[in-house]
Design a protein that fits this description.
The chain is α/β, with parallel strands linked by helices. The protein contains twelve helices and eleven strands.
Length: about 375
């Protein structure tokens, strides 16, 4: 029997509805899974590495995940909010964030192998080279990453965020003897770079120097120009002694281990691969902003004194053997301090860096 036109019309409507419903269901099944990730640091976006975490690292991860459409990240960015500048390592351990920027120079006792560049001043002003070299060592020697495992974290990469350390002060310093009796701030192991000239090294961080110099607690500090200009510390420390003490890797990107385990493999790969790109971009950025920072410092009224090469060599030669002490401490802990030091210095020599002191040649037998 031939069905009526009305019946066929209704049948067509039902079929169309079923198709739409089926397509909607398929679309829902293929929708990207949303993963929540909290990123933390005690520093604010005024800091170059935080700025690039926001402008480069996060978008780079998002771009990689968007290529497949399987996952997307809902980012919660808590810069300078949840933890203090020295609190990222502990904060990630406690699960206060999922991923963060650990300032390793504050934790010489907890992640000591990360400080090989701080044990070798006057060696390199190339932040990209230093960071890549340290990552190479970390991938070769398990103790590097194991130090973060103890704090419930997974190490992704390290960052060198400065071109080279200089001395900034409220009064002019033109030669080494001018530092006698001064109270100079610095972050950690590089306080030892000040030994031997009568200066008193005081532990601090870049967020404190403006206030401490302004109130007379410090006479100056060791820092790099981009940070001084960005935080207007030239207002209280308008004199720079350009000594080119060297760069160092002071940051690590790490992830809470429980969070890491919960992420799909594709997300973990995106985070790791983008981290290396972030590392390389930070090294390049540190150099690219350096020239502009020196110029800006002078334009803001800052006075720059270039320390003579003979004085730089004297500083390097007369400094305590921080490398030998660092190696001895690592070996006592059961870590490959000597091998790491020798490998690091060999890489720097192969890269023809402006080394003033061959630290590994003074280790003895």
């Amino acid at each position: 029997m031939i069905k009526s036109k009305t019946f066929l019309k209704k049948l067509g409507a039902v079929s169309a509805g079923a198709i739409v419903a089926t397509m909607a269901h398929a679309g829902a099944a293929n929708a990207a899974e949303t993963i929540k990730v909290a990123a933390i640091d005690g520093y604010s976006p005024k800091s170059l590495w935080v700025k690039e975490f926001i402008n480069y690292y996060i978008p780079e991860i998002d771009k990689r995940l968007a290529a497949t459409g399987n996952y997307e990240i809902e980012w919660n960015q808590a810069w300078g909010q949840i933890v203090k500048v020295r609190g990222v390592l502990g904060g990630l351990d406690k699960g206060l964030g999922d991923i963060g920027v650990v300032t390793t120079v504050f934790h010489a006792d907890k992640v000591p192998l990360q400080l090989v560049a701080y044990a070798t001043p006057f060696v390199s002003n190339d932040p990209g080279l230093v960071a890549k070299t340290v990552d190479g060592l970390a991938n070769k020697h398990p103790q590097f990453k194991a130090a973060f495992t103890k704090f419930n974290q997974v190490y992704l990469t390290n960052l060198a965020v400065l071109d080279t350390y200089q001395i900034f002060s409220k009064d002019p310093i033109t030669k080494l003897s001018d530092m006698k009796g001064l109270k100079l701030g610095s972050a950690g192991l590089n306080l030892r770079w000040l030994d031997g000239f009568g200066a008193a090294g005081v532990a601090g961080s870049l967020v404190t120097y403006h206030n401490k110099v302004g109130t007379g607690v410090l006479d100056g500090f060791m820092l790099w120009p981009e940070a001084v200009v960005g935080r207007k510390i030239y207002e209280v420390a308008p004199y720079m002694l350009k000594a080119d003490l060297g760069t160092a890797n002071s940051k690590v990107i790490s992830v809470n281990a429980d969070s890491w385990k919960s992420y799909p493999e594709e997300v973990r790969v995106a985070m790791q691969e983008a981290a290396y790109g972030y590392r390389d971009k930070m090294g390049a950025d540190a150099l690219s902003v350096a020239a502009a920072s020196y110029k800006a410092f002078a334009e803001k009224g800052g006075k720059i004194t270039v320390l003579g090469q003979d004085q730089r060599q004297k500083w390097a030669d007369d400094m305590p053997n921080v490398a030998a002490d660092w190696v001895a401490a690592r070996e006592k802990e059961g870590a490959p301090g000597r091998v790491v030091m020798e490998s690091y210095m060999n890489t720097m020599r192969a890269a023809k860096q402006p080394i003033l002191r061959q630290w590994d040649k003074e280790l003895g037998s």
